[in-house]
Amino acid sequence: MNLDFLLVEKIKNGNSKAGDEFVKKYYSDIYQYCFLHIHDPYCAEDITQETFLRFFKTLNSYTEKGKMKNYLYCIAGNCLKNYYKRKKEILLDDMPEILEENINDIEFRLDIEQAVDGLPEILKETAILYFFQQLKQSEIADVLKISKPLVKYRIREARKIMSEYWKV
Question: Number of structural domains, the chain?
């Protein structure tokens, strides 16, 4: 009989030590999976915790369908998809030559994050606030305590550099 099945049955019967053991067994694998997708340790930790919370919430309806780790990866993948939906990383009108169907592609999103990561620090914060957080130029000026013309300049420079990144 599968050890994970026994562990899950103990958890279903209210054994909190079994729950702790389960999380310890899979936490690092799920965390690494999440981190490789988003490259942010804090967000990866949050999504990992959300993965386990979802698993425990649906535990009573869980039926064994294969490896437990694969099931957790599926849950984590769904959590990552939700993370990207919530984040609404890009405004289509603001990025050069981006097709709408690419927006839902996680790899494409990671390419955009890498392009932003490659920006000089002085442009990066403005780009993140504008493209990913969808703040207005006046809001960015308030947050960064700089003039609106400087915000416009930084956005224009970020677009130029990011366009070059995609031409390579």
Answer: 2
111 and 78 in a common domain: no
CA distance 110 to 114: 6
Domain housing 55: 3-87
Q: Which of 71, 87, 103 is the last residue of a domain?
A: 87
Q: Are residues 83 and 96 in the same domain?
A: no
Residue 76 and residue 144 share a domain: no
Cβ-contact 79, 54 below 8 angstroms = yes
Read off the DSSP letter of residue 130: I
Query: Pick from 46, 56, 49, 51: which is nearest to 12 by CA?
Result: 56
Residue 16 to residue 32: CA distance in whole angstroms: 24
Task: Report pLDDT digits (tens) over 136-148.
Answer: 888 778 767 789 9
CA distance 129 to 139: 9
Confidence band, pLDDT 50/70/90 cuts, at residue 97: very low
pLDDT over 60 (residue 90) = no
